[in-house]
Amino acid sequence: MISRSTPIDLGARIRKLYDAEMEREKDVFTERLKIDDLTIKMCVEHLESVNFSATDLDTKGVAFERFLGGFFKGDFGQYFTPREIIQFCVAKMPPQAEDYVLDTSCGSGGFLLYAMDHVRHQAASIKNEVLRFRKWHDFAEKRLFGIEINDEISRVAKMNMILHDDGHTNVVAADGLEDWPVLEKINRDLKPESPIRN
Q1: How many CB atoms lie within 10 A of CB 127?
Q2: What is the per-residue pLDDT across 160-192, written as a single tens digit (0 to 9) for each?
Q3: Closest residue by Cα to residue 117 from 92, 145, 94, 84
Q4: Angle 110-123/129-142 helices, nearest 10 degrees?
Q5: How far is Cα of residue 164 from the mean position of the Cα atoms in its chain?
Q6: Which of 156, 46, 144, 146 has the alpha carbon at shortest distance from 105?
Q7: How far, in Å, CA of 138 to CA of 130, rounded?
Q8: Residue 61 backbone dihedrals phi, psi, to 5 degrees
Q9: What is the residue-wise DSSP string for 48-115?
Q10: Are the C-beta atoms of residues 111 and 90 closer than 8 Å to each other?
Q11: Cα–Cα nearest to 80, from 93, 70, 92
Q12: SS3 call for 166
């Protein structure tokens, strides 16, 4: 178990992992880790038994919202669509793996996550594990896009997508009401009325 390491060793290991992610995801992790080794050890002890891949979307969503409390209470003047409304919308307009989904005011990524989860459940019937993974993952990587005007909240959406297994690279910080040429400069894969990627 990782938590059996000394706080200093564990802190160094977690910081190294965090720094590697910070290098890989520069637009998501913009600040160095600012917690002490004992706090890192306590967090690891609480989280090491949790399998995030096997945890359902609603449970992860509640935990994420609690962790980032102020964002979800509207302290930043934002409105976040309740999960029940998102579920209703996705159920009434269920996305298919071949569809493109763009949320021009994606906030923390709720609609994107439920769209991705819907396609993941569709893919569950595919017997071949590689094909099953490719079906929903290709959708998340190539057909799922979000725009959020607030840079901090766009990073929250990216972190939320990472926590839920991907799609985060297609969330951009921009004004969703901008003209398409401006949006295309921010994310070259955003093209009106044409396949976003081959």
Answers
A1: 6
A2: 888 777 656 688 888 988 888 888 887 766 655
A3: 94
A4: 160
A5: 6
A6: 146
A7: 11
A8: -65, -45
A9: TT--GGGS-HHHHHHHHHHHTHHHHTTTTS-----HHHHHHHHHHS---TTS-EEETT-TTTHHHHHH
A10: yes
A11: 70
A12: coil
Average pLDDT over residues 145-171: 81
List pLDDT tens digits, range 47-85.
888 777 666 666 666 666 666 665 555 555 666 788 889
pLDDT for residue 196 is more than 50:
no
Round to whole Å and give the CA distance between 94 and 87.
Answer: 10
90-141 per-position pLDDT tens digit: 999 999 999 989 999 998 888 998 999 999 999 999 999 999 989 988 898 8
What is the C-alpha to C-alpha distance for residues 61 and 81, in angstroms, rounded to an integer?
12
Shortest CA distance to 146 belongs to which of 187, 181, 94?
Answer: 187
CA–CA dist 78, 134 (Å, integer): 34
Task: Give the count of beta carbons closer than 10 Å to the beta carbon of residue 2.
Answer: 13
Structure tokens at 99: 């569809």
Amino acid present at 196: I
Characterize 170-191 residue by residue with b for buried, 16 or more Cβ atoms within 10 angstroms of its Cβ, and e for exposed: bbbbbeeeeeeeebeeebeebe
Contact (CB, 8 A) for 170 and 189: yes
